[in-house]
Design goal:
It is elongated, with a radius of gyration of 30 Å. The chain has 14 helices and 17 strands. Strands 1, 2, 6, 7, 8, 11, 12, 13, 14 and 15 form a ten-stranded mixed β-sheet that branches. Strands 5-4-16 form a three-stranded antiparallel β-sheet, with no helix packed on it. The chain has three domains: about 5-300, no CATH class; about 310-385, no CATH class; about 390-450, Arc Repressor Mutant, subunit A (Orthogonal Bundle). β9 (about 130-135) and β10 form a beta hairpin. It is an alpha+beta fold and about 450 residues long. α8 (about 335-350) packs across α9 and α11 (about 390-405) packs across α13. The site of zinc ion has 8 residues, from loops.
Amino acid sequence: MSFWRPIIGLEVHVELNTKAKMFCRCSARHFGRKPNVHTCPVCLGLPGALPVPNIEGIKRAILIALALGARINKDFWFDRKNYFYPDLPKGFQISQHFKPIGLGGQVPILIKGKEKNIALDNIHLEEDTGKLIHKENESLVDFNRSGVPLVEIVTQPVLSSGLEAKLYLQRLQQALRYLGVSDCDMEKGSMRLEANISVKDETLPVGRQELIMKNDKLPDYKVEIKNLNSFKFVQKAINYEIQRQIRILEKSKQPQQETRGFDLKKGITFSQRSKEAAKDYRYFPEPDIPPFKFSKKEIEKIKKRLPKLPWEWEEEMIKMGVARTWVKTITKSKKLSKLFMETAVLGKAEGIEPDQLAKYLVNRPALRKEPPEIIIKKIKTDLSKFSLELKEIKKYITQALKEQPGAVGDFKNGKVQVLGFLIGQVQAKAKGKADPKITAAEIIKQIKNGA
Ligand SMILES: [Zn+2]
C-alpha cells in the first residue's frame, strides 16, 4: 500500500495600512477609489524617478517579524525582482531576496485539540503592483495600488492538509489584526496568498517506517495555486490539488511544475502556466536605495510597540479558568478580549467568575456593546432571576396546588407530565423568580405529603 505525504508551503501577502506608499508619498488608501488618482512619477515607474523608503512601513514589517518570533536582520537591503507584466511599470519590483527583514519564526495553531507551531521561513517587505481590470475586449491598469507596502510571510513546507492551512491563515490574520498593521481583508485583497503543494511517496517496506522521519528530502516539483480569496476556498483547493497529484503519482508519473488557478464553481484547480524559478527573476541589490542598519536600541524601541498577542490573551484566560470554547470566541477580536479582561476585574469584586462572564459574552452578543459596569449589572440581575427564597416558593406551591385539584389528582394517578403545568402556575405567582428545579422537587414533595 502506498503512503502519500502532502507537503504544503504558504506565501501570504499583506498590505500594510500606512498612510503613504512604500517608496513615494502618494496615499496608500487605494480600495474603492477612482482609478489612477494616487500616482506620481515614482509609482508610475517614470524614467529618472527615485524611490524614498517610508520608514513607518519598515517599522511595521519589523513589528510583524518580532510578533511572529523571527530573527531580525538588523542590516538589510532591498533587491530588484525583474519581470515584465503590464501592472509593473518599472519592469521590476522592489522586494527583498538576499537579506529579508525577518528570518524564521513561527505561528502557533490548535489542530484537533493539539497545539502545533507552523515554522516560518522568512518575512520580507516589498511593494505592491498596480491592478489589472479586465473588460470584454480590453484590459485596464489602475496604478493606485502600485507601490503600496506589502509584507510577505513565507512558511516552511511544513503544512500537511487544507485544514491545517486554513487554521494557520486564520491565526495569522488574527495576529496581524491585533498588531493593527493591516486589515487583512481577503475579499478586498489586503491579504492574498499562494499555496505551494507537492506530494511525497513515503511507501516503505513494513518495519522500516522509522526511515520516514530521516528521509526529509522534498519532491523535485511543486505546484503553485494562486488567487485564493477565502479561507474556505484555500482548504478546498488544497485538498483537491493533493488528490489530483496523488492520482498522477499512482500512475508512476510526476505532476508538472506549474501555476494553477482554482475554479470556484467546479471546485477544481486548472493549469495556468509553467512556474518560474527564482533564477528567472535575476535578483540584484536595489542600487537606488542604500542598505539599512538598525541598532539594537532601535529594534528594542519597535519591540515596545508590540501589543499582547492572541495566544498570550488565550493563555491568560485559560489560567483564569475560562473554558477553551469561550476563549476561542472571545479572542477572535482584540476589542472583545480587552472588554473581557476589564469586565473580569470588576466581576471578581461582585462574585462573578471569569468563566461565567465569558459564557455570557459569548452567548449574548448584545452585552458586548455595553461598558463593563453595565455588563456586570445585567449579569447579576440575570443570575438573581431565580432569587426567590425557598419559603416563598413553598407558599406559592401551596396556593397553586389548592387551586388545581384536578392536576394534582392527575399527577397522583401517574400523569407526571402535568408537573410542567403546575410549575407554570407557581411561576405565574412568583413572576418567574422561582428556581424551576427547586420548584419541581417541592411540588412533588408537597403532593406526596398529601396536598
Ligand atoms: Zn506615487
